[in-house]
# Entry
Amino acid sequence: MKLLSIAIPCYNSENYMRKCIDSLLPGGEDVEIIIVDDGSQKDRTAEIADAYAAQYPTIVKVIHQENGGHGAAVNAGIENATGLYFKVVDSDDWVKEEAYRQVLDTLREQTGINRVLDMLICNFVYEKEGEKRKKVMNYRHILPENQLFTWEDCHHFTKGHYILMHSVIFRTKLLRECGLKLPGHTFYVDNLYVFEPLPYVENLYYLDVNFYRYYIGREDQSVNESIMISRIDQQIYVNKRMIDYFTERGEEIREDRRLYQYMYNYLEIITTVSSVLLLRSGTKEHLAMKKELWEYLKSRDKKLFGSMRRGIMGAAMNLPGKGGRRLAVDAYHICQKIFKFN
# Structure
């Protein structure tokens, strides 16, 4: 059995996938690199993937499938993984070798102890095109360092500090046991990936290294604001699925105070992002969609709706009139500058 399986979803990725794969090869025989060619037809993605598999047959495996979107590619990676742990690295991102080796050493150390590690968390770096200063997302002063801990050992997560797909390595069996199945042909499913497995996570470990490099700069990138608005129906779909999951499992999640607080805050920020994108568009259709989203939350759980609606972000997203909408969007843009998200 391999120590770590790394899935690389690829869709017409020939221009950047080599940098990603090459950054992962130093893991050697401890690592299984699963390149998922998600129906690429416009370039040489499939050919490049097969070439790596031929050159590194004991490390690289390739899955060719019909196009199903990022979620379907991640699902295929989980289904075919043989590693004890599982990581997703997008094809336009990469990892730093020194931190990579520390991650593997940590995973190796954790396999020999009685308590099972469910989720390893590391820092990630925004590699934003045109910016010399790189924003590092770390979890210092929030998570205990270099030790196994539980949710109760966590400190309060501040706004802008969330555990994203770039941050995490899950135990592979946990992902299968929790029944995670990401929807196909849908963007923004990474939010589900780092949300739905959390009630199954008992033991966590934080390694304070800048491991993952998250590239931002391509015009066609899914986190580009204009593209997010054009795909707002998919953002809303993911948002509603998160609402459903949280409300259906509310009693179970509430048993762990810190876990509940974290998942509540994450759902709140995703609902805020959905709302502000709809406000940013400003069309009648999108304003109606924003109202319907909040009504959906109310229909699922009135107490949850009331709590979020009275919060600072919920109140800002529901200010009346054009002036209120303008204030909400301005506040969002200030947060963009502070936290460096798109």
About this structure: The longest helix spans residues 257-281. The first strand starts at residue 4 and ends at 10. The radius of gyration is 20 Å.
